[in-house]
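Recap from last week: sequence in, structure out.
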Amino acid sequence: MKMLKQIYLNNLFFYVLSGIAVLFAIAFTVNWIFFAALIVLSIFIAIFLIDTFLLFRKGFSVVILRTMPGIFSLGDKNTVDFKVENPNNIMLFLKLIDELPYQFQERDFLITLQLNAFESKTVDYVVVPTQRGAYEFRNTNIFSKTMIGLVSRKDVVTGNHKVAVFPSTVLMKKFELFAFNRNTGQLGSRKIRKIGHSYEFDHIQNYVSGDDPRSINWKATGRRAELMVNHFMDEKAQQVYCLLDKSRGMQMPFNGLTLLDHAINTTLVVLNIALLKFDNAGLISFSNKIGNVIKAGSGKHQLHKIYNALYNEKENRLEADYELLYNAIRKIVGGHSLLFLFTNFESVYAMERVMPLLRRINNFHLLVVVFFKNSKIQELANSEYTDIVSIYEKTIARKFIAEKELIVQELKRHKIQVVYTSPEELPTNTINKYLELKSRGLV
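Predicted structure tokens:
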């Protein structure tokens, strides 16, 4: 009974059987073909039995081991490996069907490979998760066939693996370089001209060509009879908070991820770099109510707390309450701090409603509003005219773009820092803004 559940007839079996049936049909008009058809049918049955025996004989097996990391990165390519071994003395042709988590919505997953006798191979495939949460990889189905190819044997390898999809650690590691190289040459970043220095004194050193003449220490120069300059270092232990808007405006999808998930990945990157710069990092999420709150702190344990909090963030379909956010900032955030507000304004009216609160926040802290370009509308605005409908569409797209630019100008007019960026360039542009503010001594 178990064998009947494991045996699968391949297409070749039905092709050959159909050919034999045609021979028997022709035999009604040509008698001698009947005997030829009987001989072919006998040979076919014998080969079928041999093929079945090779696959279902005692000791036949295929060894497979699935390995994967314990944590996947959101929006990144993650690899799942299979080690497959053929311990039999015949060549096998294998089809592997892995039961992927429902979040991937994959319906045609298939890996094919050929293994010689006693050979083993390692194969892999790549998945890109687009939702945070727990993913469950279930059984692996193996279909084995010999060189004859009439029959396949199905084996099921049970191997449930649960994997947690966290905000992108790959992106975080990639951008750590920014913490050590201000004038990074990475594609998409810009060089920052330092127009001042911080006021945290470090030590006195000999003057070398290129030092700022304004930093010359004249008293030390008089004592040593040679030019000496004061050396300053970046101020440390400054507070950097990321404010995450989880309302319905952040549910818009871009490249498989919502704007909220793009913001979550960037929050992890920015706060990690802030910690590497010896600043204190904190997090506040909000919608119609305050969500996760992590007071600014330092150390590896702080990054771990932020990492877990971002993993557990849930979107909210209601409007964001900025007055609630303002009150929370006044209670939680002490002293002058740098605040990155990740939100999305689709109209001037939406921005004007919250502008008084943004200005009040900016009076106490350095506020940076980070919101998004709609790249699809940008593509539509740059497309060519084809008919009267496309003219209307392009005109409306340009109106939306102009309205977004007006939002940027209005925020800048009230001396609020702005990062207006596409989701793809969000990490680069946000980090550039952080490093720029640090270099100008505004933080």
